[in-house]
Amino acid sequence: MDITPPVAADRQLIQGYGDGGFRVSGTRHLGPVLVLPRQTMAWSVHAINTLTADDLAPIRDAEETVGVLLLGCGAGGALIDPALRAEVREWGVVIEAMGTGAACRTYNVLLSEDRDVAAALIPIE
Fold first, then answer.
1. Which of 48, 86, 89, 122 is the most buried (most CB within 10 A)?
2. Which residues does 88 contact at the CB level (< 8 Å), separation at least 6?
């Protein structure tokens, strides 16, 4: 039984994670990635505790509207600096931090609902 949520063909669906990377819409990406509905790109952040607004600039500057940013923090969740949350909120983006597996699954569900979602994902080592 296929449990993949239905999404438009031009959307970036997270199909798998593990072994230091992700499979998004048929393409394997090693290391951290930013996944937006129509594009996936390498991301230079390897630890959530060093995260800055500059690290999230591609979300702010994206041509696509992002209302929810899911942070996949690795094996577990993390606390996000309230000042960083506030700055990103000024962009119109709400940050939700969780384990990477949960972030991947949540992204796919929100994408299937045609929500303005993106994911910033650190691989599970």
1. 122
2. 53, 56, 59, 60, 69, 94, 95
Query: Domains along the chain?
Result: 14-121 (3.40.1230.10)
In angstroms, the Cα distances linking 49 to 1, 16, 39 are 39, 24, 25
60 within 8 A of 87, measured Cβ to Cβ? no
pLDDT > 50? residue 106: yes
* Rg of the chain on CA atoms, in Å: 13
Tokens at 111, concatenated: 């994408």
pLDDT for the residue 77: 84
Q: Is 71 helix (H, G, I), strand (E, B) or coil?
A: strand
Token pair, residue 41, equals: 């790109």
Residue 5 — pLDDT band, cuts 50, 70, 90?
A: low
**55 C-beta neighbours (distance < 10 Å), count:** 17
Task: Please choose, from the candidates 34, 76, 38, the residue with its C-alpha nearest in 3D space to the C-alpha of residue 57.
Answer: 34
Q: How many CA atoms lie within 13 A of 44 on its CB side?
A: 7
Q: Which DSSP state fits 6?
A: P
